[in-house]
Amino acid sequence: MSVVLHEKIQDVREELVFKTAVDMAGLFSEPPIDPLFFFGIYGLRVEDYDFIDSQNIEAVTIAHADGYITLVNPMFREKFPRRYRATLAHELGHIVLGHFSMFSGQEQPGDFPEDTKKILEREAWEFAGELLVPGFMLKREKTLDLKKLTDTFQVTKSTMEWRLQKNGLIFSDFPEENFWEK
Ligand SMILES: [Zn+2]
Prior knowledge:
It is built from eight helices and three strands; from the N terminus they run ααβββαααααα. It is mostly helical. The chain binds zinc ion (ZN). Zinc ion is lined by residues 90, 94, 121, 124.
């Protein structure tokens, strides 16, 4: 099967990701930002799904003729609620950044070339981070107390460390991959 690329993506579109996330976060006056709110206002469906054979799958979004459906693994919501919020924000990122409309026909992101998939994944995580912990809100907190910040923004410690670093508020060699940690 050949995949036709309408828009060639060479790298993470930092500006688009940032602007989209900040505009959306701006609808909230203070943290925590609830990603489900956006699924609601955009009329996007979210449903629990039993990923029987692959319990480590957190969520999957599928594009169909009438829109999108995001299937979520309820186990993650129960065991790792903060991680779950990040996963919802990530799936939202794929949708609002137009990842599903970059390709023609019925292709799903799973069919995309490997290098493109990596960039789109990265964009969705960057979006999730900026939406859940917008720089403008983070700077308003005027504290670097990790416990306080993670509770205020309802994110994991690794997400918060990543956001603090990204916003130039801490300087460490914290590896970005740890954001994927539960
Ligand atoms: Zn993804």
